[in-house]
Amino acid sequence: MYKIYTNSQFSSIRFTDFDRFKGHYLQLGFDNTKNYTIFDHSLPKGIQWEDVLLSTSSSVKCFLDQFFKFLEELKDFYTNLADIDELCYVVQPLRPSTKENWRIFKLKDRVFVKIVLDPFTSSPVNLNLYGPTYEVESLRSILSEGLKNWDTEMDVHANLLRTFELTYFPMVNEGTEECCNICYCYQLEEHVPFISCDNRSCSLVYHAICLKEWFTTLADGKVFLDVSFGACPFCKTKLSTTFADMLK
Ligand SMILES: [Zn+2]
Ligand SMILES: [Zn+2]
Question: Which ligand sits closest to the CA of 234?
């Protein structure tokens, strides 16, 4: 079962509220020559779904069948992401949709991991770390070992725990969220603050967007291979991070 919506000219049709695939939708359009186009869909970003759909489908039924086939194939991918959402403290995306294939979650105090999943293999396309240099540098080798020994028979959450030799990841304690020390709020648009500087005794955190803005005011700030180098607005200690990766 699902719902169908059309516009008043009947030039577009939207399928949504599928029983088996919550949150998903497919919207088709018809051009003047009655050829199909794909207006919108809920599949993960980064793959040319449109090309495959258009090349394999010649009727509305074909489109839906192919769409359902994709969703069947993506079941493990979505289960893996749902596990991370449930069992980790995810700081970004704040309200994940079916389109995101990545999560940023807390690994330990001041350190966060970004995982980007491949929709078809559920193994990571990329693993990255955010946190003070002294933490991140020592974790880099652990991360690359984890990627090398990734067990595709195991789910993603279990692989991540094994990589970091943990039994569970830290979860947030309600009421202990720290505000950004630039804008003084916790949630700003779709962001929460989790970037901190290299000073072990400075406990302040910042939103990536606020910090990026702040870095543009620095005379000696620089960017090298996607990494932005600057200083903590409060204690002036070195702070480097990859905004491009975080604010995409
Ligand atoms: Zn802020
Ligand atoms: Zn600081």
Answer: 2
Higher pLDDT, 59 or 83: 83
Domain ranges of the chain: 3-73, 91-163, 173-248
- The alpha carbon of 185 and the centre of ligand 2 are apart by a number of angstroms equal to 17
- What does CATH list as the number for 173-248? 3.30.40.10
pTM of the model: 0.90
> pLDDT tens, 20-48?
999 999 999 987 777 888 889 999 998 89
Q: What is the 3-state secondary structure (H, E, C) of the chain?
A: CCEEEECCCCCEEEEECCCCCCCCEEEEEECCCCCEEEEEECCCCCCCHHHHHHHHCCCHHHHHHHHHHHHHHCHHHHHHHHHHHHHCCEEECCCCCCCCCEEEEEEECCEEEEEEECCCCCCEEEEEEECCHHHHHHHHHHHHHHHHCCCCCCCHHHHHHHHCCCCCCCCCCCCCCCCECCCCCCCECCECCCECCCCCCCCCEECHHHHHHHHCCCCCCEEECCEEEEECCCCCCEEEECHHHHCC
Ligand nearest to the CA of 184: 1
Q: How far is the CA of 238 from the centre of ligand 2 (A)?
A: 8
Domain 91-163 sits in which CATH superfamily? RWD domain-like (3.10.110.20)
Q: Among 3.40.50.720, 3.30.390.30, 3.30.457.30, 1.10.10.10, name the CATH number for the domain at 3-73.
A: 3.30.457.30
